[in-house]
Amino acid sequence: MIEFIDLFFNQYLRIFVGVVLVGLICFSLYYSYKDKIKKLFGINHDNKS
Question: Model-level pTM?
Fold first, then answer.
């Protein structure tokens, strides 16, 4: 029974850590390329002129 619980949580922990890592990578890429993405799609809300 303990082996089953260990395997179960080990797999879910691995999936959770993978999702968190992918989320952090996407978040950091979005913030480092935010201006380039806005220029690419032509979104300019900062125009004062």
Answer: 0.54
